[in-house]
Amino acid sequence: MNAVLLDLGVIKIYWYSVIMFFAILIGGSLALKESKKWKIPEDFMVNLFFFIIPIALIGARLYFVAFHWDFYGNHLLDIFKVWEGGLAIHGGIIAGLIFIILYGRKYKINIKRLVDIIVVSLLLGQAIGRWGNFFNGEAHGAVTSLEALKWLPEFIREGMHINGVYYQPTFLYESLWCLIGFALALVIRKWSYLKIGNLTSFYLIWYGIGRFFIEGFRTDSLMLGNLKMAQIVSIGMIVIGIVYLLICYKGSKFDNRYNDKENVEHVIF
Question: Would you state the pLDDT for residue 72?
Answer without folding.
Answer: 92
